[in-house]
Amino acid sequence: MAELIYDKTGRLLFTKEMKEEYTILFPTMLPVHFGLIARIIEREGYKLEMLTTNHRNIVDEGLKYVHNDTCYPALLVIGQLIDAVKSGKYDPHKVALLITQTGGGCRASNYIHLLRKALVKAGLEYIPVISLNLSGLEHNPGFKLNLDIIRKAIFGLMYGDIIVQSANQVRPYEVEEGKTERTIEEVENHLLEEMEKGKGLSFKSMVENFDHIVAAFKAIPVQGEPKVRVGVVGEIYIKYSPLGNNNLEQFLLSEGAEPVVPGLTDFIIFKIYNREVDVDIYGGKLAKKAACAALRHYIEKCQRAMIDAMKRGGFRAPGTFQDLRRLIKGYLGEGNKMGEGWLLTAEMLELIHSGTPNIVCTQPFGCLPNHIVGKGMIRKLKDDYPNSNIVAIDYDPGATKINQENRIKLMLANARALARQAAQQEPETAGEEVHV
Amino acid sequence: MSLRIGIDIGSTTVKVVVLDEKNKLLFRSYERHYSKARERAAETLRSIEEKLRGQQVRIAITGSAGLGVAKAADIDFVQEVYATAAAVNTYIPDTDAVIELGGEDAKIIFFGGALEERMNGSCAGGTGAFIDQMATLMNVTVNELDELSLKHEKIYPIASRCGVFAKSDIQPILNQGGRKEDVAASIFQAVVDQTVAGLTQGRELKGKIVFLGGPLHFLQGLRQRFVETLKLDEAHAIFPEDGDCFAGIGAALCATDFAECSFDEMLDRLEKSVDNVGLVDTMPPLFQDQAEYDAFLARHNAMHPPEVDINTYSGDAWLGIDAGSTTTKMVLITADGGLLYTYYHSNLGNPVAIVLDQLKELYNLCGDRIVIKGAAVTGYGEDLIKNAFSCDAGLVETVAHYNAARHFTPDVDFIIDIGGQDMKCFKIRNGAVDSIMLNEACSSGCGSFIETFAKALGYNIADFSKLGLLAQHPVNLGSRCTVFMNSSVKQAQKDGASVEDISAGLSISIVKNAVYKVIRAANADDLGKHIVVQGGTFHNDAVLRAFELELGRNVTRPTIAGIMGAFGAALAARDLHLDKSSILTAEDLKTFSHTAKPVTCNLCTNHCSLTVNTFDGGRRFISGNRCSRPLGKERTENPDLMHYKYKRLRALHGKGAGNGVRGRMGIPFGLNMYENLPFWFEFFTRLNFEVVLSPESSRKLYLKGQHTIPSDTVCYPAKLLHGHVEALVEEGVDAIWYPCMSYNNDEGIGDNHYNCPVVAYYPELLAANVPMLKQTRFLNPYVGLWRHKDFTKRIAVIMEQEFNIPKRETEAAAKAAYTAYDTYLHDVRETGKRYIEYARARDMPIIVACGRPYHIDPEINHGINDLITSFGFVLVTEDALSYLEGYAPRKVLNQWTFQSRMYNAARYVCTQPDMQVVQLVSFGCGTDAITTDEMRDILESGGKLYTQLKIDDISNLGAVTIRVRSLMAAMDARKHQD
Q: Same domain, yes or no, for B440 and B515?
């Protein structure tokens, strides 16, 4: 069995030996993206498992080991990991836990510390915790991300976004139930095979893959009238994770709506761009700013390619990061960077501008940044766009699905009424035009 | 066109309406459904069957609990707010807004332009169910509550966020003798404030307002409060005749769009449909069978004190009184703890009357045989009762409970007491009370919550909890505050859970709340080996069993669990060893009288709501005060750094060293300005601005800005800012300076130096939500103070752009500002040092208040500092000590400047024998979810006590007093050991 080795601050390390013996568990946030990236990392010789569990005990474990007033995502992520460790499925002495760490003024930067505290409390302090971050925090001899993996991960991220965005536009209309899910799997396998062969890792082949993905989804037979589109924005975990948002997308589908969920790429660019903004506002090293800008430009280039591919394939494409920056002017400063920061409001603006004024703004109960950038901006959005129809939904261990769904239903009823109104007004306006 | 039927199934009632083709109401009903909604609706329809048989009808169901029924019976569903809007549009066209209160929902619908709706979020309960709860608490019917409210003289401030908070406010007012009439009106006012604050979210309520829903339909007092608060005249406050079933009417109107069906066939479908039994989340039963329950009972009943017959005993006796929040307990004991007499009863909102009756009864029973040699009081009503009957001593509840527990289990190491209103638990270490944990305001529902719930379902508490004992599938209701549980129960009912399973589930929830929310234990070993449970709630076998199951070990419940506080008080009275008790004699009681009058103290800006109790012979007792001044005594003048800092900061306005020619610069006095004001004051006065500080915070100022608060769960200090900036605009300042600051100063003691997101970006929220700010220049650029050179360069550009100030001048001002800020910091530290020396010269204990800079605002801390110093402490703040320790790694990410100071101050306190920490925490402060555990860790591993004071817009200091006194008792006990 691998020896437990600590660094000089007393942090338990993930050693090379552990890489051989241990299974690394990590929580789900975005099933498609994370699944894809996990399989990329797996190919580097790690045993990796994404937890897709979704049952009450996760919340209970979270309540037990995390301060109950901490945000709900912390409770769920930590609850899910501890629940898995205790499930009997794994040898607790042969698992490690992986968690992302973002940094920033939000309390979410504390998840990894809260996880360690929880492990001590649960008597599981011998389990190593690996931080997944791009800021060079917390090194582990047995877990090293080289440039190659990082590049593949960025590709995985882009592929994840285009897959999810395309799939979301097809799923509500598919003729044959489950066809979209199967296509996702097929596309993923294809991409991984390509990577395996060392292919698909140039910008050019990424663009080809984009076209391949878009074509695969476009080929799915669809039927029916366009449905009411509902945008989903919010705190990143709650927004994406079905465990966090009580299967929100599923619920919207079952209510006859088409969910529109902005991708992860903008968030990544946002986090990089923040470092550049900091230098502008407060001062700092210009070299650091330039390095961030270079990375950002590369990802933005990939994003543009993705958008073009979607347009070519006949899908509605999201705007670029620069579009979002233009939209946010007059609402929030670019210095507003904690949590989802100004990006959250910008995403709502983009949805409104792209004909999806119906929005569910999700957040954990008492989410600090969302007081400002979520709930705090709805008033102004409503003033500027009277047709915007935004409902803020809080998620926490005590909030019941029935209340959440009732509020979403209200938003949907409103959305349908607005759509009817618009449909009635259109012929009138058309008539006026003829008259003129 | 056919008849249309609308069925509105709410959380507590069913409304059925029938409309004819001209939208005329043919039939309406409003009935409670006692969680049998579908049956109730079907019965009502059956009762009008004659009129409708054979007809074609259109039907729609609406309501918060209607969805399941609609699905099961295959009837169309309309969202209830949408339905209401439809009805209002049809019957009262030019409406501007609708306020609708239901059983558990509160809604505002704004008309005009696009329809806009607001429903109460997951943290709001000031609704019909809340009013029911409050009526139960005051032991009146809802109608009586209404009548009482119409005769009010004054309104007490009652927390308006959710029912649980309001309850903790009302209880002490009742216990201290506040008038029921005033409390009743205050309850309605709280509902109004809740609705206005929680739901308007930045949109003003004006124009023609329609009031709907049961409570507003039936309760005149509530109507009155709304009309007065919103300043509406008759033409603008509309209370429609059928306001209680508008949603039903709306559903009927919406049914126009749905398909016709035959009435008989529809009713048949409704009756035959089985409610969609969803997947109820269940847990294992409390007891497998009766035999297991019997064994459990036998084990616990063995733990009882000797009983002595009061009718034959002669000798000395001691009296203990526990004037609790909802119940009054009394015990008379012999020298060895034998029980002569016990009493446990709801205090019906007036503990004085109860104790008076009981004392008379006792004197009767005692005759000449028994002499009461001492009497002690504990509990919420301690002061009142002690003064009313001139008892010999008063003691804090925690100590009373420990006294009692020790009597039964000498080696007790953990005590948990769940009463009607509060939960207390503490460890016993080396024979002294240690680590006191009280429930935070948000989970104080506890025992009285089950009781209210039982009543709502039509049971008394004893029967209700018995139901759960042998329930086979207890429902998992989670472990959050009671308002959430209400909706969890609603969901469980909808999913077909039985009353038995709900009863068991509620008991388990209460236990989970205690274990995971209050105690925050991971396992039984965290608590102790010898656990004694007490408090009325543990008389409930279901709760006790759930507790044992949750911990996985047996605990001790004395048979007198419900009166342990009184028992402990009696033991304390005995241990006074008095020759004669000062308690009123039987003779005195004959002429005893008691009146209570509310007054507002005007001796300082706190404006405490006092209750003046007058007893026979002109004896007076004043309650509700925070300091000794209304009692005719001088304010205690112990050194108090919070007070010092506040006064020093408040003085920072005017022209300073400049001449003020550039105009008047308004600065809102809130959040980080409590730290950065010395900097900005110097900066702007040097630039020849006159600095105008917003007025001192007050409830009134809060209410002024309340209507523009978009997020009702943000902390109170942030909410206050809305009033501050509005006041500045009214002042007519030329500009308001309130910059965004992601980062604070870097004091080198943390891993980073952020502000929390709310402090950092609140200026942007204000800009987007306070319409008045458009009348002024609101300057909220991003700045960072910690890089002096970079800041100077950047602020010079900003000042040039905004005010054409030459860069040179700004640079000089910035330099002076940095010096001024350093001087301020130095002064705070030096003053702190002097205060500590003062304390040490007089051998006084020192309390270090750890919080945020803005916690020194008296409206935020409600005079906690006065209270602490009145107990004989010297008070200093975290920033006066934090510099004495350097950087050290923490187990959490130490990334916020203000929070880092607390960690350091706590570390320093651990090295000082005469200091203890009190941590101030604002409700809703997300960062403190992280700091509180870490502070506890630091202090306890350093051998210190941990005391947390949670503060809110609640202005009652009852819970704070218990904590501070418990801390004192624990300090005393430690001293005695040393």
A: yes
